[in-house]
Amino acid sequence: MKASQWKQWLLAATVVMFFFPPASWGSETDTNKEPWEKFGIQAGYFLAAVDSGFRLGTGIGVDIDVEDLLGLDSDSSVFRVGALWRFTDNRRHRLDFSWFSLNRDGSRQILQDIVIEDNDGNEIPISAGSTVDAFFDLDIYQFAYSYSFLQDERLDLAVQIGAYIMPIDVGLKVAGAIDEQGSARFTAPLPVLGLRMDIALTPRWFIRTGVQVFYLEYDNFAGSILEVNAALEYKPWDHVGIGLGFDTLRINIEAEGEDYPGIDLNGNVNFGYAGVQLYLRLFY
C-alpha cells in the first residue's frame, strides 16, 4: 500500500470514529456487560519496515543483508487476516489464527566478493561487479491457544501456547554461476509461549496487547522468536471494531541439514519487521 493510500485509510477511520459515532456515544449502559467476544474475524493492511538476511553455507559462507547488499525493498505493505474463537461458555478458553505473506525479489550489481555454498556443500565465489538476482519469500501462519486466568468486565489476562508455521524460500541467482541451487527452503512449526492482555477502557474502547517468545537449541539447530504487539481499538457498532496497532517480530534460524523436523537448511535465516496495521474486526 502506498503512503497516500495509507493516509486515506487512516483518515476514513478517523471520520468514522469521531464524526459518525453511535447515538449512545459515551453511554456505559447500552453495551453488553460481557465485553469479550465469542467469535471474531479481522482483516487489514500492515505497513512494515523489514530487515532480513541469510547465509547459505555453514563454513566460509558470509551473512547477506538482502536489503542493503541485494536491493530488496525494506518497506512492505501486505494484507493480513486473523480469527478467534472462545469455545467454552465462560469464554476463558480461546483459539487464534492469523496469516500474512511477504514475497520480495530484486536484482543488483554487488560491490563486494561473497562466497556461498550450494546444496552439495560446494563453495561458490561470487565476484564484485556480478549482477545477482535475489528472492526472500515468507508466509507466516500463527496458531495459538490461550486460557484467561484473570477475567472480568475490564480485564482479560491470559497465558498462551502456540506455533508459527513459516514456509520460507530464500536464495540467489547469478548468470553463469548458480541458479536455484543457491537457495534454502524450510517449513518448520516453531512453538511459542506468551501472554495476552486485553483491557476494556470503556464499553467502546479497548487496548489489546500480547507477547510471544521461543528459543530452542537441538543438535545442529538453533531458533528464536520474539513477537510483541499492541493495538487501540474502537467499537462504533455492537459487532464492528476498528483498530490501529503496532507489531514487531524477530526470527532467527540456524541449522545444518535436517536435525529439526521440517527444515532442510545449511546456514541461517534472520528476519524481522516493525510496523503498524489498520484493521477492521467483525465479532459477536
Strand content: over 45%
Mean pLDDT over the full residue set:
78
Task: Tell me the span between the first and last alpha carbons.
Answer: 30 Å
Query: How helical, in percent, are the residues?
Result: under 10%
Task: Please summarize the sheet with the most strands.
Answer: 11 strands, antiparallel
- Protein structure class: mainly beta
SSE pattern: HEEEEEEEEEEEEE
How many whole angstroms does the radius of gyration measure?
Answer: 22 Å
Low-pLDDT windows of residues: 15-33
Structure characterization notes:
The structure is a single chain. By secondary structure, the chain is mainly beta. Helices cover 6% and strands 65% of the residues. Strands 1, 2, 3, 4, 7, 8, 9, 10, 11, 12 and 13 form an eleven-stranded antiparallel sheet that branches.
Brief summary:
With 284 residues, the chain is mainly beta. The protein has one helix at 3-19; strands at 39-56, 64-65, 75-86, 93-109, 114-117, 123-126, 131-151, 155-174, 183-200, 205-218, 221-237, 240-257, 263-283. Strand 3 and strand 4 form a beta hairpin.
List the helices and strands and how they pair.
Blueprint: H1 3-19, E1 39-56, E2 64-65, E3 75-86, E4 93-109, E5 114-117, E6 123-126, E7 131-151, E8 155-174, E9 183-200, E10 205-218, E11 221-237, E12 240-257, E13 263-283
Antiparallel strand pairs: 1-2, 1-3, 1-13, 3-4, 4-7, 5-6, 7-8, 8-9, 9-10, 9-13, 10-11, 11-12, 12-13
